[in-house]
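Entry, Tuesday afternoon. Goal for today is a structural model of the target with flavin-adenine dinucleotide bound, before we commit to ordering more compound. Inputs were pasted exactly as handed over by J.K., no edits. I checked the ligand SMILES twice against the vendor sheet because last time a stereocentre got dropped in transcription.
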Amino acid sequence: MSNEEAHDLFVIGGGINGCGIARDAAGRGYRVALAEMNDFASGTSSAATKLIHGGLRYLEHYEFRLVREALMEREVLWSMAPHIIWPLRFVLPLQKGGLRPAWLVRLGLFLYDHLGGRKLLPPTSNVDLKRDPAGKPLKPMFTRAFEYSDGWVDDARLVVLNARDAASRGALILNRTQVVSARREGSLWRIETRDVDGQRAVHWSRMLVNAAGPWVDNVIAGVLGRNNVHNVRLVQGSHIVVKRKFTDPRAYFFQNPDGRIIFAIPYEQDFTLIGTTDRDYTGDPRKVEISGDEIAYLCDAASEYFAEPVKPEDIVWTYSGVRPLFDDGASKAQEATRDYVLKVEAEEGQAPILNVFGGKLTTYRRLAESALEKIGEAIGVRGRPWTAGSHLPGGDFAAGGQESLVASLRARHPFLDPRHAERLIRCYGSDATALLSGATDVAGLGRHFGGTLYEVEVRWLIEREWALTAADILWRRTKQGLYLTSEDVAKLEDYLEGAVDRLKAG
Ligand SMILES: Cc1cc2nc3c(=O)[nH]c(=O)nc-3n(C[C@H](O)[C@H](O)[C@H](O)COP(=O)(O)OP(=O)(O)OC[C@H]3O[C@@H](n4cnc5c(N)ncnc54)[C@H](O)[C@@H]3O)c2cc1C
């Protein structure tokens, strides 16, 4: 295999970091391949709190570099993908005799407003909870709050849109394909993969990128065959979803007596998302799930604030993920750095590898740019940074233009239920029209699977977004799982069995 025939980069991992690096690199003209062993975003990247945020809490740990970079990314990412990313205001109720005095919180918010290039997002303001609707669902003891800006992201869609864009720029994107071994042969990597049908294949690449998130050390140990590997600290975080606790479009930032914080966020039209927790994790990242203690912790913490308590029986869904934090030796899980670390190993004359440790959804684009700098140093520079100012698929409309897009989709397809139209724009942006493929009435949407999920969307997800299973469709490409009954899911599974093969066969 000659250098000219090999890929320039082979990326292990289809989470946000792998897909972000693959997209950036493909756009600069590198020959890129990426393998994801399961589904895109099936690891940590669909289990986040889903905030595009500077991380107000990280100021307490003096993570100024990270906070500044993340704050600056908020508006960059919003204009890159205004369908899946939008601003969110947070109401932070103040407590008399709380852990942090009001002046300290205000100082943090002052820094937050001024550290990171805020142009469109409104600044911090004071809220009188006795008059403002934000006070309504809270206990009457909360009378004052601050309100500040951050952003919301559909995390799993952010990943798949990066994968789609990378593919449209020439990257070879392999879903459900595990990297089972990687060995250096001279100046190239020989990479062996195994796909979902057990088929093995060999790929050659000038450089390897290990973006395996919580599996990053497993890849170094198992795939590359090294001993005594310990770079990341795995920290579990869980969320609960309950029926909507409040109608206000703002989210809440609650401070807990243990010094931690949790969020309560409007979620998927009819729900409230509450999270998260922080606890060290040692098991298989794929098997992580919420514990009874975490459920009790989240219910209790939210019930300190809401007038109507949150009870375990209110929970309609939970999810858990594992943060792959770079191990900086911090004593508590919540104090471990949230910043990312990129390390290149490149012995003279040998094919290089870049290992990615840590990283946030919010900083994925900057992480990819930093990775590309290191890749350029290792195998030669190609292209220039280009992703700031670019659009992800469906995101080619003005930030803040969601409502007019919904209106024009409804004007073109008047039979669409308004909630359906809104969801389609929030998932697919300007691609929603193509997805509906000229349907002129409800029958034109094909089979109805429950919620607002129709055959036309399922086909799009199989054909354009690598969806194979009901979980891919219901819990990652969409969150329609919140609306479907178990009979609905069985119908979808039946449909998928035949449809995936038929559609793939063309
Ligand atoms: C509870 C929680 C809340 C969070 N909240 C936020 C937030 O609000 N905002 C924010 O910005 N960030 C947040 N984060 C952080 C963010 O979600 C993660 O940092 C990010 O998703 C990590 O992405 P990744 O690509 O590194 O890892 P992953 O998403 O886990 O991707 C790694 C992928 O590698 C694949 N893989 C592993 N081994 C192999 C192999 N041998 N071959 C092929 N594929 C392989 C895995 O299947 C996996 O899909 C949160 C994280 C958690 C856990």
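The pocket of flavin-adenine dinucleotide is lined by residues 12-18, 35-38, 42-45, 47-51, 53, 178-179, 211-215, 219, 223, 237, 276, 321-324, 359-362 (CB under 6 Å).
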